[in-house]
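for the writeup, i need someone to sanity check this before i put it in the appendix. the sequnce is what the collaborator sent (i think, or maybe the updated version? ugh). structure was predicted straight from it, no edits. if anything looks off just tell me and ill rerun, i have time this weekend
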Amino acid sequence: MVWMGAVAVAEPVASPGGRSRRSGAVAAGMVALLLVLSTSACSTDSSAQGTATTVESVDRSATVATAVPADGPEPIAAASGSDGTTPDPAPAIPDPVTLAFGGDILLHMPVNDRARQYGRASGRAFDFSPMLAPLAPVLDLADVALCHLEVPVAPDGRLTSYPSFGGPSEIADGLAGAGYEGCSTASNHSLDRGYPGVIATLEQLDRVGLRHAGTARGPWETGPGLYRVGDVDIAHLSYSYGFNGYRLPADAPWAAAQIDVDRIRRETADARRSGAELVVVSLHWGTEYRHEPDSFQRDVADALLPSSDIDLLIGHHAHVVQPIELIDGTYVVWGLGNQLS
């Protein structure tokens, strides 16, 4: 697939906690790819996100990408021939498909405490809706909106925070209510609450109708999240660099997907052969709080980008915004930063 693109300027929107958010506004674009970039961080940290509007540094904790499949016909200008005849009309250009991606959802205890406070007002144990609802105007622009759920749901209801996370099940309701259709779930925290945490997380996503990729309850669930927009089939895959020292269960080695170049090539090729016209890979990688991609990110991307079966790489983990780069016709969003943390 060939991608082309443009950058958007971010405009501030009020957030529930009084901090500023940014919603995307399109600046200029070419036909095949339009990136609409916006800040939606809901951090309890009072530090401000970056606001530069270059493609390398624009704040993009929520990103909307619009793409036209590359196999669509090129427009042909209608003109009269020398004999006075008119050529056949140009083939119709395919409708664009718009994808939105959010940054890390990592529920430290202050975020859970605030959700508990909101829940007292709404009659729920926890309510994340006030934090996430301002995302809706951005996510509504997308045909498919995908979050990155870095924290597992606590399988026994006992909440935990750094270094081993376990969040409230109500986070799934908040994400669905904001307008997400699915989530990537492979992260260094995927196994923080063991295999029961994997099961609990996916059960809660299923309960609210969110599709998922990156963790699994069985071999049958290790494939991509699948979405269809019009006549376009989209496959979403998710992988993590590791699991903070936790080992995959011997009897459940498929519980979480680890970055392995050969595996990713194989699974993206399978997705393409199965009919996916857009193949998106979410990668939990990089060095925390580093604004530039590290050597591991570069090496993995260099190994994957020659593949014609990958259309877009979306990065997570660094907790700060990293660049967007167009490399040999494929966009790499190195890191989206935090969305809720």
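The chain has one domain: 11-71+95-340. The longest strand covers residues 97-105.
thx in advance!!
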